[in-house]
Amino acid sequence: MLNKDTFFLVLLVFIPVSIAAHFLAWGETIVFVTAALGIVPLASYMGTATEEIAVVTGPNIGGLLNATFGNATELILAFIALRAGLVGVVKATITGSIVSNLLLVMGFSMLLGGLKFKEQKFQPTVARLNASSMNLAVIALLIPTAVEYTSTGIEESTLQNLSVAVAAILILVYILTLLFSMKTHAYLCDVGEAEFEEGEEKREVNLTFWIFILLAVTLAVAVESELLVDSLEVATSDLGLSPLFTGVILLPIIGNAAEHATAVTVAMKDKMDLSVSVAVGSSMQIALFVAPVLVIAGWAIGQPMDLNFNPFELVAVMVAVLIANSISSDGESNWLEGSLLLATYAVLAIAFFFHPVVEGMI
Amino acid sequence: MLNKDTFFLVLLVFIPVSIAAHFLAWGETIVFVTAALGIVPLASYMGTATEEIAVVTGPNIGGLLNATFGNATELILAFIALRAGLVGVVKATITGSIVSNLLLVMGFSMLLGGLKFKEQKFQPTVARLNASSMNLAVIALLIPTAVEYTSTGIEESTLQNLSVAVAAILILVYILTLLFSMKTHAYLCDVGEAEFEEGEEKREVNLTFWIFILLAVTLAVAVESELLVDSLEVATSDLGLSPLFTGVILLPIIGNAAEHATAVTVAMKDKMDLSVSVAVGSSMQIALFVAPVLVIAGWAIGQPMDLNFNPFELVAVMVAVLIANSISSDGESNWLEGSLLLATYAVLAIAFFFHPVVEGMI
Amino acid sequence: MLNKDTFFLVLLVFIPVSIAAHFLAWGETIVFVTAALGIVPLASYMGTATEEIAVVTGPNIGGLLNATFGNATELILAFIALRAGLVGVVKATITGSIVSNLLLVMGFSMLLGGLKFKEQKFQPTVARLNASSMNLAVIALLIPTAVEYTSTGIEESTLQNLSVAVAAILILVYILTLLFSMKTHAYLCDVGEAEFEEGEEKREVNLTFWIFILLAVTLAVAVESELLVDSLEVATSDLGLSPLFTGVILLPIIGNAAEHATAVTVAMKDKMDLSVSVAVGSSMQIALFVAPVLVIAGWAIGQPMDLNFNPFELVAVMVAVLIANSISSDGESNWLEGSLLLATYAVLAIAFFFHPVVEGMI
């Protein structure tokens, strides 16, 4: 744990550097790279602050806070990109976050955990329920694109209405899954959290301090996201990366670095329930909460974002959900299963790298 | 049970009303709506009559009767629509029946059953076998469309031959599943029926009476179906519904109302084996028996119907089978799983509502 | 076992006949058919020779030999066809081998085994791991085609680079699965082989003799493959078969006849672990080893073969993997499940038969 903490502390230095790079005009690429590195520790501190506040508020409001702020970094970054009109990049980040949580994060967890422990077990009931929720989420994301592809011509406003309706259903489902896991069937799902807190004595939490930290971090995330979004187009084109690759592969690695570190760390302590729930839970939050909130937010701020994705993004999401479900549904993992997830991620990443820039993507 | 029976009895009044509406020219919309309402109780009585006759004929012929007449209402309605040349509507009704049985009927059963009982269990072996049969059925329905989409041009007669060959295989598979569940592996599958008859004393059945009822009901279904089909085009266009929406969403709700009532009623008595087998069994009957019989019947009466579906219908069926299998394969259900099925249905229904009218559909 | 051995011995006569037919110009169709029949016993003897050598070399190198030479017949045949420029036929043979192993071989094993034994069981852990590997393999094969279909225009060289990169990942995954099943988790996977050798006393093996046999058989396979490939175009066109049907249906039946005989024989002795591992293992070898080796070999000999398949081939592979996984993942089989696999194969074979000849296929 010490290494991770020190590492994140060091990365904080990139926040002032990125701001300096912006005002002193050191070049878009330097702004982009330093802002990206600066966001990594912020996402982690946002998670810590939310959890500390949750200790005071009790499990119910705490669970809600975690569920809402768990992907706040992605949400802020995506919202700023959306406001800037980078609709294609935002959509790519959504699919990329799902793919990288299910394949990269879960893959490294199972591989590194599996190299230490021959076989690792986790709750299959929850894994299967999550698999079904992810299936629904993927279906919902797929439907508007499928409608567009199977009709001879559909108006943009119809697609937009369809997307808002689908988004409303997804948010409802998200609320229902919270109700299920925190109220009616909490006994099924709190294995992971119990493990997390295991051995931790009751402690005092300074609420005012952590609320202040949360606000400060949120502000810093917003600033860094602005810098990142402003420099994105020029920087990625200088680096020879397509916007699709940037959105699907690069941005989610930055946004999910904190989850990544947590999931791998706990997997190496053989707490696979928690490790899998971090990876899959984060994907579900993106699909059932972040994506629909962005659709509705975009519609509210006059930057309409429909759910009509680039078909290859859908292929990637379907593939990720298929293989992640196939591997996690038996409640057991080993190093080969981790490797299969990583190999799938590698195949997709290479394909996105070679994929010609798609019309309509900024 | 009383409520359902009374309700169906009241609905019978719509039969004379629909006939009057037709002959007194009260307007196509009134004919359509009243004929639709009149069919609902008839489907239920057809089921009752078949089961009563099955008591006399013994389990073997009885099972066969149930397997053949179980979806007789859908079959008659579809045949009359097919004869009237509404090929697109018939195909839409086939996919819609599969989708609504797997998502709407099973979804309400699991939701309402799950609100009463925390966890409900059913036979996973049968569930998985049914899942495999449904996979095969979907594959078979998908293949002709896939052949058309992946070739640069295919003659209608080739598609027709392919469809008839596929239909013959599906009917053969249907016969094999009957053989399996009634002969060689009956012990696996009769849980549901045993529960159904539980507590029922041996009783006398008036065979002549029930055969007469079956004939009368069949005749009435045919008459109402004629009225429904004749008024369909004008009525749905007056109601602002596309033929695709009518076929996929509206007609299957009418045709499956009886199964729906049964599946939900038994789920609320915690007889999930029976509830799931009604929903999934009905889907399988549509896919493995009704659809291929219609292909062959259409070919015989000179109204050829191939299995080349609108691709979005295939997306809907694939999605329904995928999520229904993912939810039912572990032999357990709860209210959230029911909600996921209903949410998927809602997403599909909205998509069909917004889907532009497709060329070639009447 | 006697019958199979005698049968294969008799088939050897077609080797000289095919050579005579070639040099005496008896016609391409006779050359094609006799060469095809001649290959069947050779594939079987190649397997026997490899296993005998493996007895001497010990399990590690032996396992490696089996893993490398297990599909040597397919590899030699495909390589010769590739050198002759029949890229489309080679690709079709790859997909066809996967499909026929999963559906035809496993289907007949489960059907014939299931007619003798009511329920047959096999290791579900290994079945599920194989399912995940097959999912990855299918995904990898699907990706280049998906990239091509979802972009407005992609250069052939990009597709080729993408295919080589994907091939490298697949070979790496193949090596990892060998490491897993032979080293780190051997205890999970050697059920099948233990059964295979059960009751066999320790015996002397004449290494020189079997190496000589292996070389002779390899040479004969190469000669017969040359004859088969040379006569393929004229012969299949005379027989009224499209090159697609030949590649997907006909050639894999010839190449997999030996595995087929073994899998069915052991299934009828209720050794389902071994039966399933022959069928699925062979598919995995094709997807994770033979296909990528051909991509790299084609690139080396200047006959570049990308992984951009005919979309209907992909549909067939996806369908086969989906239904095979759905049937095998519970570790149980019965005759109906075998029938479902065979019915799926029949539907696909009919579809390939009716599929119009595709542009770009020789």
UniProtKB/TrEMBL annotation, chains A, B, C:
It comes from the Bacteria. GO terms for molecular function: calcium:proton antiporter activity. InterPro entries: CaH_exchang, CAX-like, NaCa_Exmemb, NCX_ion-bd_dom_sf. The chain crosses the membrane at residues 30-49, 61-82, 94-115, 127-147, 159-180, 205-223, 243-266, 278-301, 307-327, 339-358. One of its GO terms (biological process) is intracellular calcium ion homeostasis. Keywords: Antiport, Calcium, Calcium transport, Ion transport, Membrane, Transmembrane, Transmembrane helix, Transport. Residues 29-182, 211-353 form the Sodium/calcium exchanger membrane region domain. It is found in: Endomembrane system. The keyword DNA-binding does not apply. The keyword Membrane applies. GO terms for cellular component: endomembrane system; membrane. It is a multi-pass membrane protein. Pfam families: Na_Ca_ex (PF01699). Its main location: membrane. Ca(+)/H(+) antiporter that extrudes calcium in exchange for external protons. NCBIfam families: caca2, cax. Belongs to the Ca(2+):cation antiporter (CaCA) (TC 2.A.19) family. This is Ca(2+)/H(+) antiporter.
